[in-house]
Write the structure tokens for this entry.
Amino acid sequence: MTKPRPIKRSPALVQFSRDHHFALLLVWKIRQGLRLGVEPQRIGNYITFFFENYLKSHFKQEEELLFKELDEHDNLRLNAEQDHKAIYELYDKIKRQPGLLLVKEFADKLEQHIRFEERLLFAHLQNFLTESQLNFILQKIEAIHFPQKEDDWQDVFWMKT
């Protein structure tokens, strides 16, 4: 069986994929914390920090620069928007009262959403959008996207002590 070839990503979408890698590290940290029996409150505190400092702006950039380029009735756009809404709702619940099931559900939903965007939505965008539209997105993302901030969270609950 041959190994699948890597997806050639449009430069307009590369930064979004880098952000996704960083968010998948969040998923890994959550799952490590769960495996180690860390209190949901500690994990929830990190989710809140990460969401406010990284995910919120990432979602906004996707919604304003990518999703709006697709028809408002496009099924993949609708799926992505529904995912964002569901992730926001989980985040709000975690902020109020983090619990093991909520934290696990958040990690699962975030990973599923990232995989969906990487495998389906981005390929759809690359096939649907013109080179001019992709270049416009690239210019916009380069103008507003800053280098990834260092994750300076002190409670590294995902590390075995």
Observations:
- The chain has five helices and no strands.
- The mean pLDDT is 93.
